[in-house]
Amino acid sequence: MRLTDILHLCSQNLWRRKSRTILTVLGVIVGCCSIVTMVSIGSGINEMNEQSLKQMGDLTIINVYRQGGYGTGFGSSTSTGGSQTESKLDDKAIENFKRIPGVEGATAQMSLSYSVSMTAGNGRYITTYGDVQAIDMTQLGNMGYKLTDGTAPTRDGEVLAGQYLAYQFYDKFRPEGSNMRYQPQDAGDGTYWTCDSTGNCSQVPADQLGEESKPFFDPMTTEITLTIQTGDDSSNGDGMTMGMGGTSGAIGSTGTGGADGSTGSTGSGNTFKLKATGMLKEDYNKGTATSSGILMDITQLKDMIAKVDKSAAKTATYEQALVKVSDIRQVSDVEQQIRDMGFSTSSYEEIRKQMEEQSRGIQMALGGIGAVSLLVAAIGITNTMIMSVTERTREIGIMKALGCYVRDIRIMFLGEAGFIGLLGGLVGCLLSALISIGINLVYMGGISGENIWHAIVGGENVTRLSVIPWWLFVFAILFSTLIGLVSGFQPANKAVRIPALDAIKNEQ
């Protein structure tokens, strides 16, 4: 028999008992739909976990410290190098990091440890806090720093401003209580929490944010004057630390300003005019300067320290470095290689792995529940095919008597079973996609063109409760087809074992 003849017989036989076939296919649809929907919820939980981590910072950044070095980033897990010999975290080590396979960029990171103050708008706007950090600006793009506005600095005196730097300043000409502007907090639903000077907070839509929610000035168009205070009580001896900004705060200390908040001459203060050429996007995993500070080139910061403190020790080693990995799946391997060099590291990798394992466990549990439905469907396919063989015993005998090959009879029954599984898988996947979109729309709060698009493809800041990757559809269709073939294997063998003469004598 030709393949087309076999396929024609398969469709003819299935359509002959269409009610039974439809009910059997329906069982497969329910089973397939259950598995895909359950697993998609587990995938959605995993996506939600990753979105939460991304809000904390870049998941592909590794913080590197000298062995026994201080502090880690917020939410980070710490690992200690396996080597007992302390390695120097210097320019040579940075170059070695860059040569590790999978590393996209690496840079030392320094933080100014002196007390500082900053003014803007000809001294009208003041802050006695300043988080000043520095990296190798040639690595800015490689390290994944993002700008919300402007470009990277190229000349001495040019810097990058943190996304919310301007909110650190107060207006010395306004009365106390109204001389500060408070940063609106994103509520995640298209609205923002805003607070006034009395501490009263309210939730308003993004398009209704008024002037009182904006800072007093724009750092991109306003020159900033940085004043660095030196003294025995404000320096650690070498004039710098290389960390995530935690040490630049004792800032707001006495001696940084006069009674009206203006920069005074107490101590050996030194001022520097800075121009912001770009605005950084907040990312705490790269340092708090991305949020409320200033980021400059590492050479520029060293020159500033040399000018303000002649006694500052010249050093070629650093306390901390940042390493950017090209793929999140390579973070663990790169981190281990850095530890083997004798350094301590911290990243979000351990937290991410724990969340991923939890999500995988949830996926397996939910998938197991859905698999029960598919098992019931498999039993239904087997029952349908056994009944089909019993009803068509005489037909099988005639086919054998006419010289039909045994393999053709087996292929015919397996084809019928496989088609039931394939059709059920296709319809089940289509139904699962619709259910997934519906779950996401309910989770997102309603039907709209934007929500429908985000429910299907997601987005940068979009959180979905149900996520169906393309491979899950392929797996579900192939698995349903396989279930059909396996379920039809025993009835097909039963059909080919029936003797031709006995089958012809059968009255059915």
UniProtKB/TrEMBL annotation:
<feature type="compositionally biased region" description="Gly residues">
    <location>
        <begin position="240"/>
        <end position="267"/>
    </location>
</feature>
<keyword id="KW-0812">Transmembrane</keyword>
<dbReference type="Pfam" id="PF12704">
    <property type="entry name" value="MacB_PCD"/>
</dbReference>
<feature type="transmembrane region" description="Helical">
    <location>
        <begin position="21"/>
        <end position="45"/>
    </location>
</feature>
<feature type="transmembrane region" description="Helical">
    <location>
        <begin position="468"/>
        <end position="489"/>
    </location>
</feature>
<dbReference type="InterPro" id="IPR050250">
    <property type="entry name" value="Macrolide_Exporter_MacB"/>
</dbReference>
<keyword id="KW-0472">Membrane</keyword>
<feature type="transmembrane region" description="Helical">
    <location>
        <begin position="364"/>
        <end position="390"/>
    </location>
</feature>
<feature type="region of interest" description="Disordered">
    <location>
        <begin position="229"/>
        <end position="269"/>
    </location>
</feature>
<feature type="compositionally biased region" description="Low complexity">
    <location>
        <begin position="230"/>
        <end position="239"/>
    </location>
</feature>
<dbReference type="GO" id="GO:0022857">
    <property type="term" value="F:transmembrane transporter activity"/>
</dbReference>
<comment type="similarity">
    <text>Belongs to the ABC-4 integral membrane protein family.</text>
</comment>
<feature type="transmembrane region" description="Helical">
    <location>
        <begin position="411"/>
        <end position="439"/>
    </location>
</feature>
<feature type="domain" description="ABC3 transporter permease C-terminal">
    <location>
        <begin position="369"/>
        <end position="499"/>
    </location>
</feature>
<protein>
    <submittedName>
        <fullName>FtsX-like permease family protein</fullName>
    </submittedName>
</protein>
<keyword id="KW-1133">Transmembrane helix</keyword>
<dbReference type="Pfam" id="PF02687">
    <property type="entry name" value="FtsX"/>
</dbReference>
<feature type="domain" description="MacB-like periplasmic core">
    <location>
        <begin position="21"/>
        <end position="182"/>
    </location>
</feature>
<dbReference type="InterPro" id="IPR025857">
    <property type="entry name" value="MacB_PCD"/>
</dbReference>
<dbReference type="InterPro" id="IPR003838">
    <property type="entry name" value="ABC3_permease_C"/>
</dbReference>
<keyword id="KW-1003">Cell membrane</keyword>
<dbReference type="GO" id="GO:0005886">
    <property type="term" value="C:plasma membrane"/>
</dbReference>
